[in-house]
Amino acid sequence: MRKIILILFFLSQLFSSCQYFDKQVPSEKELLQKELKAINWKEVDEFPSVAGCEKIEDKTLRQQCFFEYMTQLIQQKLSVDTLSILYPELDTIEVKVTVCPNSRLIFEPLFPKDSVAYDTVKIDSILKARLVGFPKINPAIKRGIPVKTQFILPVILKVE
After folding, report:
1. Within 10 A of 65 (CB to CB), how many other CB atoms are there?
2. How far apart are the C-alpha atoms of 40 and 86, rounded to whole Å?
3. Which of 4, 88, 99, 124 has a beta carbon 3.0–4.6 Å from 48's, enabling a disulfide?
4. Residues of 77-93 as b/e, b for ≥16 C-beta within 10 angstroms?
C-alpha cells in the first residue's frame, strides 16, 4: 500500500511539473525589438583608432589620443599650404571627419552660416587635395561590427 501511495505521489508530481515546461516562448520579433531598444545607438563600444593609440587600455584616453593625433596630422598637412595666406583672418577651421567602416576617411570643412568672407568651394578643394595619404585608421566598433563614425575637429591654422 505504501508503494502504491508513493508511486501515485511521484506520478502526481510528474504531471503537475509539466506546467513548468508549458511557458510561452517569446517570438523572434519580440526578442529583436527588446534587444534593439536596449542598444544605445549614440555610442560605440570602441572609438576609431590608429596604431599608436592601440596600446592604451583606457577608453577615454584612447579616444583623446586618436583625436589629438588626427588634429596634429591635419594641422601638419594644412600648414604647408597657402590657406593661411589666402585667408589671413581664418585662424581656426572646424573639419567634420567621417571614418567609414572600410577605414576610408572623408573630410568636410564646416563654416559659420554667415561666412561670405570665405570662398568655401576653394577651401574645400584645398582640404581635399591636402588631406590625403593618412595612415590606416581602424574604424569604430559597435557590438563587434565596424561602423561609421563622425566627429568635428577644430584645426588651428595659425599658431602665434
Report:
1. 19
2. 44
3. 99
4. bbeeeebeeebeebeeb
Burial of 149 (0-12, 13-18, 19+ CB in 10 A): middle
Residue 84, φ and ψ in degrees, nearest 5 = -75, -25
Of 6-10, 30-34, 129-133, where does the model show the most confidence? 30-34
d(CA 152, CA 45) in angstroms, rounded, equals 19
Alpha-carbon Rg for the chain in angstroms: 29
Give the span between the Cα atoms of 140 and 154, in whole angstroms.
20
Greatest C-alpha distance within the chain: 107
Backbone phi and psi for residue 114, each to the nearest 5 degrees, phi listed first: -100, 25
pLDDT range class, residue 101, cuts 50, 70, 90: very high
pLDDT for residue 49: 87
pLDDT at 106 over 80: yes
Asked if residues 66 and 123 have their Cβ atoms less than 8 Å apart, the reply is no
Neighbour count for residue 109 (Cβ, 10 Å): 17
Does the pLDDT at position 19 exceed 80?
no
